[in-house]
Amino acid sequence: ELQRHVDTLIVIQNQNLFLIANQQTTFKQAFSMADQVLNQGVRGITDLMMVLDADLRIISVNKVFEELFPNENAIGRPCYSLFRGTDVPCPECPAVLSLRHGTVNREKGFFHINGNTVHFEMVASPLPSSPDAGRSVLMFKRDVTREKKLLAQIYQAEKMASIGILAAGVAHEINNPLTAVAGFAEGIRRRIPLLE
Fold first, then answer.
1. 3-state SS, residue 93
2. Does the pTM exceed 0.85?
3. Residue 17 — very low, low, confident or very high, per pLDDT cuts 50/70/90?
């Protein structure tokens, strides 16, 4: 019933509230405590988070976003103007699909931020809408640049190891006939004085 009257509903099971409150705690204090727990949980998320409106303008961001763009006032700006420096949405933007279809969408993309190329795995999830707030989407961007570089180094090391094994095999295959040729040549060299 409550879901019909609010735009966002987050449920904390009752028994878990008793872990942070006791019988003398008022409802207002209990809700304040629950809000603090949720706030700390969101702050503990290490992915970049932002809430976007239907026009892809930034409504709110988390601490990771603020650390990535320390001198930017992002609220009210289109996300693509910060991440791509363009006036149009990114072609691979999962937020566009989430807003259009009301589904969770995933995508990967490269962005140039502060002089670095950053590879993000993105997840966009539509948020419940209300007549007052309009449609919005929660966007997570996980920086996987370092992981991708490490994977590339592992692949390169595996390729080099494969080339080494191949070279050793080729050398062995060439060495076998050469050993036979060298043995016959040595035998012929020893017999030449006897033939003279």
1. coil
2. no
3. low
